[in-house]
């Protein structure tokens, strides 16, 4: 089976915190996507990932299992020029909501295309990982949020890798369990620690399930798609 072409979304405008994009569906309605606006849910999803940057959180509910690729564009204003475009990847499955932390210096972003591709028989993991023993190194937000950390040893460089966790906690009414995907930059053989946020309950836990390196978007194709989506 060949690589599917991302399905254009029906999202009409860019979103920012406090200015949500209306929910929309792709893959014939089998995958629904919406911007997370609840403050507690947003903090659970973005608090450990954003650092000093801005962060939007997107929620995905699916009736199929697939690897969902999303093309996200970023801008400094609602209607201004696109500053950058990136491709993100999240593994979705029926019955478990998935959330994507979209981190950047820009305040506005939009999902311009999204499409499913079949889950591979064997994952192409770009790194190895194990639970961290250095709990004191967790980000500042984790002291209130609750986090579970993993030490990662990258096998190759990746400018924007997607780290996916299965989170067993309902902080912010995100669902127990739910999947959380955060972006990280990987450099071959340079260790780093990643954190799943929103694990505040005594019985809460998180497991790192996947690290992927989505292909960089074709600049021309991404620019055309983003311009069309913004103009609708």
Question: What does this 3D model show about the protein?
Answer:
- This protein has helices spanning 39-46, 142-145, 219-231, and strands at 7-8, 24-26, 31-35, 54-62, 66-75, 82-92, 98-104, 108-117, 127-131, 147-154, 158-168, 178-186, 192-197, 205-212.
- With 232 residues, it is mainly beta.
- The strands form three sheets. The protein has a seven-stranded mixed sheet with strand order 2-3-4-7-12-11-14. The chain has a four-stranded antiparallel sheet with strand order 1-8-5-6, covered by helices on one side.
- A hairpin with a 4-residue loop joins strand 2 (24-26) and strand 3 (31-35).
- The two termini are 32 Å apart.
How far apart are the first and last residues' alpha carbons, in Å?
A: 32 Å
Rounded to an integer in angstroms, the radius of gyration calculated over CA atoms is 17 Å
Instruction: Name the strands of the widest sheet in spatial order.
Output: 2-3-4-7-12-11-14
Q: Give the number of helices.
A: 3
Please give the number of β-strands: 14
pLDDT < 50 runs, ≥5 residues: 1-12, 218-232
Mind summarizing the main beta sheet?
7 strands, mixed
What is the mean predicted local confidence, pLDDT?
A: 86
Helix-strand makeup class: mainly beta
Kindly state the percentage of residues in helix.
Answer: 10-25%
Cα shape: globular
N to C succession of SSEs: EEEHEEEEEEHEEEEEH
Report the sheet-strand fraction.
Answer: 35-45%
């Amino acid at each position: 089976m060949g690589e599917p072409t991302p399905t254009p979304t029906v999202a009409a405008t860019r979103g920012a915190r406090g200015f949500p994009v209306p929910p929309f569906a792709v893959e014939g309605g089998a995958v629904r996507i919406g911007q997370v606006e609840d403050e507690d849910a947003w903090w659970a999803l973005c608090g450990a990932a954003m650092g000093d940057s801005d962060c939007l959180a997107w929620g995905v509910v699916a009736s199929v299992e697939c690897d969902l690729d999303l093309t996200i564009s970023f801008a400094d204003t609602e209607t201004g020029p696109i500053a950058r475009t990136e491709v993100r990847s999240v593994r979705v499955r029926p019955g478990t909501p998935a959330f994507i932390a979209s981190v950047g210096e820009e305040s506005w972003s939009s999902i311009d295309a999204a499409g499913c591709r079949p889950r591979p028989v064997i994952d192409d993991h770009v790194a190895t990982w194990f639970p961290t023993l250095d709990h004191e190194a967790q980000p500042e937000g984790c002291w209130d949020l609750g986090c579970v950390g993993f030490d990662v040893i990258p096998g190759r460089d990746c400018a924007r890798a997607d780290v996916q966790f299965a989170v067993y906690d309902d902080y912010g009414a995100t669902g127990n369990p739910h999947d959380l995907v955060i972006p990280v930059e990987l450099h071959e053989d340079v260790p780093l620690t990643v954190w799943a946020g929103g694990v505040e309950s005594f019985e809460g836990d998180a497991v790192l399930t996947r690290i992927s390196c989505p292909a960089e978007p074709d600049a021309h194709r991404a620019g055309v798609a983003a311009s069309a989506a913004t103009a609708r």
